[in-house]
Amino acid sequence: MGKAISKRIVQINELFKENRFYIPNYQRNYTWKLENAKTLIKDILGNSGYFIGNIILNKKEDFKYEIIDGQQRLITCYLILLVYRNSNYLGERDKKTLNKMTGTSDEGLRINNEAVLEDASLNILKYLYNNSSIPAASSKNTIVQMYKKLKKYLETMSSQDKKTLFGNLKNTYILYIDTSKSSITSYQLFLNLNTKGLKLSNLDIIKSYIFNQICSLPSFQAIKSDWYDSISTIDEKDYDDYLSIYSNLSNQISTKTQKKEISEQIISSIDARDKAMNAVKILGSKESKYFAAYKAVRYKDCENDYIQYFDDGGISIKPLFGHLTFIKKISFIQFNIALISILTFSNKSEKNRIMRDVQVIDDFIQYIFLYSAKKMLDHESPSTYGNKFIKFATDVYQNKDKICESIGKIVKGFGGDRDMQFKDLTRWNDKVFSQNSKALQIAVALISYLDGDTTLLYSKGEHFIPDSDAADLNRHLFSNIIPVASDPYSNKTKAQKIPMYLANRTSEPHIDMFLNKDYDPTTGVCDLEKRLKRYKKLFIKKFNELRGKLVAFAPANGETL
Question: Model-level pTM?
């Protein structure tokens, strides 16, 4: 194979002069960020005759090449040239050179970007080339966004730097490797380059396998358009999570399987056109809504994301917002899996199902929170019960019309007398409680929930008895945590904290609630034992109340998950 591959060093000026470049369907999207482009610009600006690296091309016919490797750099360089083309930064001589590099007519476009968004005939770069208005559907395209950012960035540069950048860019050197005479196909070479070190995201690699199987279909452009539209809201950093969710809900592999292995198992199933089409249907259409729900729960503002997600479907789930805000502060994998399986729909009947079951779902959200918080504060590994949530998600996935029944089955399967022994509740005294520990966050959230406050507007929790009071054996107790909006109380003794609490109670509603219920102003003492018993009583009452309501939906035959 080595003898069949040719290579030579060329300048971008020469490379762009007559050749046309095509981005194969199996390629990844353009993903460079502005910081990547800035680094490239600064390197080129500071070095005349700069060597930009190597690109690998496959010659299809005279002057026409597929880009196998180097797409990000070539497109970025081309976008910079388009900024110059649509601006007045250059003299007449440089403009003539620029026209030769970018073409003097629409047919002279140097790079054909095939990764369309909506219309199979739409070519993003042509709009930029002609300085035309971008269709609204394509305004968020990464290439469009990069062009706008580059244009804004170049505007901040001095006139001399703009001229220097163009002069250096046209003379920038590239090692051009031609594989057209090699026995290995361009697709195989692309995979070899990008899978050995996993430079591509796992989803991009899967996409390349899928597209390679179906690219000859007459409907391929429409399929590709649907794919990009479906995953357009998924950030690259979240792709692995998306694949994991898909795998969990499809009940294909163990939740302990590594992310790379998840991708490999999915890829191994894509060995024919019909299987590739099935993967498109699952990964690039309906199933992506599971990920939309996941992101709204785990990463972003629940209310705004859910408003948009469900308003698009013509329904409202505002009754859920109060308890969904808990997940903005606390994240349980089990919580996420359960919500993802419930909060998605694809047709009218499923929309109606969400509205019909919204109160049951809200009760279940509270139940998951209480159960997970208790397990966390008892230092019990989620692995002891986490698989039950996977089974629940699969059950919901397969029986969309029986959400309440699935909830009843899983609740009946755990949370009974043996599972929820409260005699050890006083052991909620995590020795690693600190200002940023997850255990402390959960304790704060649980206290607020049991006190009837589900807003979680505060961001911290601190100890009524400070850690420095080493002689006090109760310093770590769960009942010793006070939710606060700010934390000026650290490193203060108990005696110092009490007057500070009293002074700040007006501005700190959580402290005010704490003092009203547990502080004796006549003695200046907070009864922590009484406080712990109060929370234990509230916890048991709320938990059993929710469990009773939800178990009622379980099948009469007693089936559990």
Answer: 0.58
